[in-house]
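Minutes, project check-in
Item: structure for the 223-residue chain
Input as provided by the requester:
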Amino acid sequence: MTDHPTIPMPRDGGWAAYTDYSRRLATLLQDERARAEQQAAASRDGQAAVDQITHRLGTQRQHLHQLAATLRLPEPHVGGIAPGPIPDPAEALRRAAAAADAADVAAENAHRRAAQPPLLPGFTPLARNALVYAAAAMLGTFASLLMFAVSPDADLGRIPWQLVPWSLCGLPALAFFAGYLTISLVGQPRIGGGGTRSARAGGVICFVGMPILWFIFIAATRG
């Protein structure tokens, strides 16, 4: 049978010192145990935060790739990031979350801008299209009047009848298709839909408005 070591009893008041050191040792052990539990909890919280930010970055990367494909932009390159001189893991996580928030704001801003057409984004679709068709009609009318002005018949005081088909049909058709093409290229949102080309309104502006202006010009010059 093995004998257990015995602790010598202190003499001359040594028992009080012994119990005092025992209490101190128990307090130190308790504090160390609490500190270890706090570190373990902090480690678990840190790992959970790392897992959360990793999942968020993965979702964000997928969203950026989808947004680039929708906007017909080059695919974003998301490479590795070299570790920075941030010794505090909590501060590093805070900065990573702040960077992810900034990226979300930038992506939302790009999405919002892409939902608006590049041409006159603050206008309603009808107002934008009407303005485009009106501009095309004005250019077509100017071309018609210029053709009328340089015609030899105009110098003789006669109506250049050979220009009438162009003024009443040809140039309005060109103006309509120019406006329609302009709206199709720069007057439509790249995402979200909601675009319209207002072909009926464009037809009225070009095929009705331009002949009216032409007849007004003829009447003014002949009168």
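Outcome recorded: Helices lie at 14-70, 89-114, 125-150, 152-155, 164-186, 199-222.
No further action items on this chain.
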